[in-house]
Design goal:
Blueprint: E1 2-6, H1 21-33, E2 39-41, E3 44-51, E4 54-61, H2 68-79, E5 87-93, E6 101-104, H3 113-122, E7 128-133, H4 143-147, H5 153-176, H6 178-185
Parallel strand pairs: 1-4, 1-5, 5-7
Antiparallel strand pairs: 2-3, 3-4, 6-7
């Protein structure tokens, strides 16, 4: 079984923001597999089902981004999955161009507070992740304001495609392995 966690912030005010791309990818996966993500459990809204032939738990933590690790820890403890082989975290990344994907087997938080909190709660950084680029913060912008801001019209189209591509990458991780997903989806910046 895989636990797939999309990072974001709960509430209407945060819907469609750069920081909530993890939630958007979870919705894309849920649509693809016909899973309803409505059950409130483990400090998250979760859905259970089968995706790409694998049993999955789809989760959207409701702790706010900076405390995402609380929900992830509860999910891992309850479902007893191997956090290095069966946990996939989806997050936004400001160091990647809008819509660019980066699949990783492990790694540092890279300044991302949600990832930092997960690493703190798990006690290691050896979990798989799919990072979705939201573009670099413009000069003079406050980082929090930028990641909590909404995409432009053109960016929205790119991000809708990126969410579909991230869903494909996650299916690839589960069926072919993380190395294969890295080879297929870690392409250079989109021009």
């Amino acid at each position: 079984m895989f636990i797939i966690v999309g990072l974001g912030n709960p509430g209407k005010d945060y819907a469609g923001t750069r920081h909530n791309i993890g939630f958007d990818v979870i919705e894309t996966l849920a649509d693809k597999a016909g899973i309803s993500v409505l059950e409130k459990k483990h400090k998250a809204i979760i859905g259970k089902g089968v995706l790409c032939g694998q049993k999955v738990i789809l989760a959207k933590p409701q702790t706010y981004m900076n405390l995402s690790g609380e929900s992830v820890r509860e999910l891992i403890d309850y479902y007893k999955v191997d956090e290095t082989e069966e946990l996939i975290i989806i997050s936004d990344d400001i160091s990647l161009d809008v819509g660019q994907l980066r699949v990783r087997k492990k790694g540092s938080a890279g300044g991302h507070n949600g990832l930092k909190n997960i690493i703190q709660h798990l006690g290691h950084d050896g979990f798989m992740r799919v990072k979705v680029g939201v573009g670099e913060k413009p000069k003079g912008y406050d980082l929090a304001d930028y990641v909590l801001g909404h995409f432009t019209g053109d960016e929205k189209k790119v991000m809708a495609e990126a969410a579909k591509e991230a869903a494909e990458a996650i299916c690839c991780i589960m069926t072919e392995g993380v190395e294969e997903a890295m080879n297929k989806f870690n392409q250079k910046a989109k021009k």
